[in-house]
Fold this protein.
Amino acid sequence: MKTVVGVAVVEDGRVLAAYRPGPEGGWEFPGGKVEPGETDEQAAVREIREELDLEIKVGESLGAGVDISAEYRLHVYLATVLSGDPVLREHSELRWFAAAELDEADWLVPDRPFVRELRTRL
Ligand SMILES: Nc1nc2c([nH]c(=O)n2[C@H]2C[C@H](O)[C@@H](COP(=O)(O)OP(=O)(O)OP(=O)(O)O)O2)c(=O)[nH]1
């Protein structure tokens, strides 16, 4: 099974989410596929740099992975900002969500267990 990493960047009690455009779109954690030879943490740092121009420190995993296809499993990691401000590059929208706002968003289905877990951590 290959891994997709989602990164829950948390700052001041809010989490940064990104809207994936298109027919399969919805709110998600920025991130992407782990490349051969990379650790999950390295992939998280690379993807967040590429997608948001942000330097992060990756923290703990938000619980068990969720299968998103026969080939890929989603793992979500907490992270904090080391430097930079998020830049919109690949998504259609970025938004910081407080715990009480998380339910307002139309999250991708595989992300929902992680969102539930996050609510207790913000
Ligand atoms: N990044 C991200 N992808 C997610 C989440 N939830 C979820 O189901 N996915 C799915 C959508 C995509 O099918 C897949 C991630 O693919 P991607 O297109 O972001 O990966 P990538 O940046 O490495 O891009 P590519 O090289 O395949 O073009 O995982 C999530 O929270 N974050």
